[in-house]
Amino acid sequence: MAVIFRPISRSATVPIFKNKTEDSDGWLSILLALRLRQIENEYPDYASFADATGLSRGTLYQLRTGKGNPTFVTLERLARHLKVPVWTLIGRTGDDDSVKRDIETFGFNFNEIARHIEATRAVKRSMTEFSGVPSLKEAASLAGATSEKKRLPPAKKGRRTSQ
Prior knowledge:
The protein is mainly α. The chain has helices at about 25-40, 45-55, 55-65, 70-80, 85-90, 95-105, 110-130, 135-150. It starts with about 25 loop residues before the first helix and ends in a 14-residue tail after the last helix.
């Protein structure tokens, strides 16, 4: 049996999934919100928790209430700042054995993926060191130091006088 694909005419309606759809049952959003609330309880107050996450308070609020839609990069950054495995943010135990077993169930090699991730990190580190580009933290401290030195007195309003 052959499958024939017909081109879609310009007048045909093609679904675009830019807004929430009924396809989403919300499991990941709710698990992330619940886990963030649990982790928050380990901090003395919300302010210290918010500072520890490395996220803006608006983004954190969205995630804590199950309304956010974080990227994978955001989840990884959040996990790194909170010093927890990314798996625990979505309700997994996060121990390497269970994650390895789950990954290999789908035919992937856990150790090969881990080596690839480490090699990618090493390249990023060596490129930063090689290029002489300061880290964001170093750049911010340099910018703060130079802005202190170059501060000019506020300009006076009025006419200019030539000297």
